[in-house]
Write a structure and sequence with these properties.
This protein is mainly beta. Strands 1, 3, 4, 6, 10 and 12 form a six-stranded antiparallel sheet that branches. The N and C termini lie far apart (about 40 Å).
Length: about 230
């Protein structure tokens, strides 16, 4: 990974921690005239359940997942170092790692960093069962890289009680232009100071994040598929 990008990603997390601005965005299509990944919009789903349901034990996790083939069940918010930096996100019915996927773009028209939170529509309420640990996995890709070393920062994210918590792994960013798996395993409350996984904890909205840092004008196009969170309860 580009050391300069790593430093910028760390800096972007510091910006978020210092006080981020929540900007809920609509689903926006790509601007015409730019290279695009395969994309066929999917219809909106029926109203999802208000909270996750099902068993949750140490041997039988409650699973939240999305293969992005049944409409848009996501909301998006971001922080950025300059208002000229833009994000687009839309689900596509084809072109994924089998079936649909979520296509995203970061429009880096000026130097800076953009950090984007994607939140799944179905929260988990710990009053149903205290969380022992969480496993996270996804498939990821970068389409049409603007340069050989252009990287996309990625990781796991959740929101609880108005606070956001993130977790990266390894290189913290990827550059591969074919679908590859990514995962972060055995996450506990100790990995997220301030979070409450006990039965007294507030509802948790799970998701993922993406981040890009750049020093020149470019557009970085990327995708996610087979998003999955496994919740193990004690």
């Amino acid at each position: 990974m580009n050391p300069g990008l790593f430093a910028s990603l760390v800096c972007s997390v510091a910006v978020v921690a210092a006080g981020d601005v929540l900007c809920t965005l609509p689903v926006i299509d790509l601007r015409p005239g730019f290279p695009q990944a395969p994309h066929t919009p999917v219809p909106s789903p029926s109203t999802p359940p208000t909270t996750a349901t099902g068993a949750c034990t140490m041997t039988n996790p409650l699973v939240l997942s999305d293969d992005f083939s049944v409409g848009n069940q996501w909301t998006t918010a971001f922080t950025r170092t300059d208002p000229a930096l833009l994000n687009t996100a839309a689900n596509s019915a084809g072109g994924g790692n089998t079936g649909g996927y979520r296509r995203m773009e970061h429009h880096m028209s000026v130097p800076g960093t953009i950090f984007v939170y994607h939140s799944f529509s179905v929260p988990y309420d710990p009053s149903r069962g205290a969380i022992d640990h969480v496993n996270y996995s996804e498939d990821q890709i970068e389409f049409l890289p603007p340069s050989p070393r252009a990287a996309v920062g990625w990781g796991f994210f959740f929101e609880q009680g108005g606070n956001r918590y993130t977790k990266s792994v390894g290189d913290e960013a990827y550059t591969h232009s074919s679908w590859q798996p990514g995962s972060i395993q055995n996450l506990t409350a100790a990995d997220f100071p301030g979070a409450d996984f006990s039965v007294l904890g507030k509802p948790i909205t799970f998701g993922f994040f993406r981040a890009t840092t750049g020093g020149s004008a470019f557009i970085i196009t990327h995708g996610i598929d087979n998003w999955r969170v496994e919740i193990f309860c004690r």
